[in-house]
Specification:
With about 250 residues, the chain is mainly alpha-helical. Helices cover about 70% and strands about 0% of the residues. It is built from twelve helices and no strands. The longest helix has 28 residues, at about 15-45.
Length: about 250
């Protein structure tokens, strides 16, 4: 998997100017939302129990987790295309796990900007050595949860053609829930955020830990991460049994 990442990064950096432009523009795109929140908090000092610095933790964790997923596991976004057009053939002939090979088959350059922005936001608004170390651990869990979540819903394409549109809608809901404080959402959405659309485990609980670390919160995140990754492998492998080859004479480049 790390070899795949190495070669993906080498390919992405073949054009250094395009790569750096993509990264920098993503950082500026994310940073523009800081102005929005500064304006909101100039009118109201606290939202629920959250200050401006607290809210920026949601953005830092969401951006960092998103960056981790699309740097290391961007191939997950191609699962529907591979299934619908019979492009999994090249991965089925490999000795390594099919899902791992597919997940690590590509890298999104702009995601590097998301990852860097997460660290920038943390350093500006909530810097401490403890927060920096804890944040670095939590975005790995957040990235794995987000990746596994996408695998579960994209794998529906094995059975239902074009179900990727439904999966992408859920992905957008996941991201929108993770970017904003939990206090602004209804009880129904909060239940969804800790079940079918697990933004709560990927971002909300990590925010709680950065604000007030409790071991039980870390255990919740670890156990849920293990559970959803297990579910992702199960759903993908079960769907793979229904996969129809296109007989393409192709190999992974």
């Amino acid at each position: 998997m790390f070899l795949s990442f190495k070669y993906n990064l080498m390919r992405a950096m073949e054009n250094n100017v395009a790569f750096m432009t993509s990264v920098i523009m993503m950082i500026f795109n994310n940073a523009s939302f800081i102005i929005q929140w500064i304006t909101i908090f100039s009118l109201k000092e606290v939202i629920g129990t959250y200050t401006l610095n607290d809210v920026m933790l949601f953005w830092a964790l969401s951006s960092g987790s998103f960056g981790i997923t699309h740097i290391f596991f961007n191939g997950i976004t191609r699962i529907p295309d591979y299934i619908e057009h019979g492009k999994l053939d090249a991965y089925l002939t490999m000795p390594k796990n099919v899902l791992c090979q597919v997940a690590t088959s590509s890298l999104e350059p702009s995601a590097v900007g998301d990852l860097l922005y997460g660290y920038i936001a943390l350093i500006i608004f909530n810097f401490s050595i403890k927060n920096l170390l804890l944040y670095s651990i939590l975005i790995i869990f957040g990235g794995l949860i987000y990746a596994a979540f996408m695998v579960v819903y994209y794998s529906l394409t094995f059975k239902y053609i074009r179900s990727n549109y439904f999966a992408e809608s859920l992905r957008d809901v996941f991201l929108n829930l993770s970017l904003y404080p939990d206090v602004i959402f209804s009880k129904v959405l909060k239940i969804l955020a800790f079940s079918l659309i697990p933004s709560g485990f990927a971002v909300w609980i990590p925010v709680y830990m950065l604000l007030d670390f409790k071991l039980k919160y870390m255990l919740y995140v670890i156990l849920f991460t293990i559970g959803i990754i297990t579910l992702a492998f199960y759903v993908f492998n079960k769907g793979l049994k229904n996969y129809s080859s296109s007989n393409l004479m192709d190999a992974r480049s």
